[in-house]
Amino acid sequence: MKGKFGLGLVMALCLTLFAGFGAPHAGEGIEGSSKAAKLDACVEPTDYMRRNHFELIKHQRDITVHEGVRATDYSLAGCVDCHVRKDAQGQHVPVNAPGEFCSGCHQYTGATLDCFTCHATKPTGNGQ
Amino acid sequence: MSQQTDHLADKARRQFLTKATGVAAATVVAPGVFLHSVGNAAPREEPVNDSVRWGMLIDTSKCADGCNDCVAACDKENGLDQLIKPEGASEEQWDMQRPRWIRSVKLKNNLTGRVTTLPMMCQHCEHPPCVDVCPTGASFRRADGIVMVDRHTCIGCRYCMMACPYNARSFIHENVQLKPTATPRGKGCVESCNLCVHRLDNGLNTTACQEACDKGAIVFGDLRDPESAVSQALAKYPAVQIRADLKLNTGVRYTDV
Ligand code: SF4
Ligand code: SF4
Fold this sequence. Notes:
heterodimer; A: 128 residues; two-stranded antiparallel sheet; 5 helices; globular; B: 257 residues; alpha+beta; 4-stranded mixed beta sheet; 10 strands; binds iron/sulfur cluster
C-alpha cells in the first residue's frame, strides 16, 4: 500500500458532498484510528479515488480471480485493511457498519454495497 | 502492469520455490523432494499461464477408514467450519446441504467386494462439465488448470452442481456471518475446491489437505514439471482417474483404487 486518504481529505470530500444539505455529522471522524487516517493519500490521488475507486476494485477483482495476480495496490482486502477503524477497546469496527468508511458515503447516496455480502469487513489475518 | 508473461522465467521461479526452500513433506513416493516454500512466499505479480498444471495423486492405500484429517483441514483453511446450521433446518437437511469441498468416500468393487476409502474433491477436469453448462461463464478453468467459480458472476442457478460427476460442488444457502479474507463467501453462489488458490497465488505450493495428511497419502504439485513430486509419483505408480470413462482428464488421480 502506498498511501491513503487523510482525515482532512475525507472531511473535504464529505464537506463537498454535504454542503448545503445541513447534514449534522457529515462523515466526521470516519477515519478515526485507521491506518488511512495517518496517511496523506490513498493508492491513487484523492480526486481520482473519489470518482474511480470502484473501477479499480472491479478491474482488480477480474485480474485476481481469473489470472491469479495478488501483488496489487487495488485489492478490496487492502481497502479494508487500511480503512478499518478500531474502537475504544482496540477492536476492529466492520467497514460497512453505519457511519464507517465504506458506508459513510454509500448510505448517504443510497448506493447499495454488495462487496460485504461475501467479503470480510475487517482483517481476518488469513491472507489476501 | 505488464501483460506479457515470460513463461520460462515464471517456470524457473516456480522451480526455485519448489526446490530451494522449506520443509520436506512426509511422502515416501518422492523422498527428498521439497514441497513447502514458506520462506519465499510472495504474492503473484504476473498472470498464471499454462506452463503449469496443478494436480494431485492420492494413494488410497494410506487412507485409513474413519480418518478425517484432510476434510477438517480443508474446512478450517476455507472457513467452512464457521458455517452454522440455519435456524429451523433439520440435522439431516444440514448434513445434506452443508458446504463440503472434500468428502471422504467409500468405493466398493462390486465384483470383489473390496472397499476403498478416499478423499473426493473437485477433480480439476481438463474438460470440466461444470464449465460447459454454466450460463454466465462464472464457472471457469484457470490457465494453470484450477477450476473455480467467479462468484461475482455466479447467479446461483446450480446447473454446475448437476453437471459435476463427482458431487464436488456446494451451494451457499444462507447469509454468512464470518468470512475469511482469503475465502470470500456469501448466500447464493456455488463453490468448490480451488486447490487452495490463495496459497498458490501467494507463493506457497501446498494445499491444506496435503499438509494435514501425516500419512503422506496426498502428493500435490505441477503435473507439467517432470521433476515435481507428483509427476514422479505418477510415473512410478499405476494411477487411475475416477470415472475415466468420461474422458475429463482429471487433475486429481488415485492409486490403489
Ligand atoms: S470435478 Fe466437478 S466441479 Fe471439478 S472441474 Fe470436474 S466437473 Fe467441475
Ligand atoms: S451456479 Fe454459478 S457457477 Fe454454477 S452454473 Fe450457475 S452461474 Fe455457473
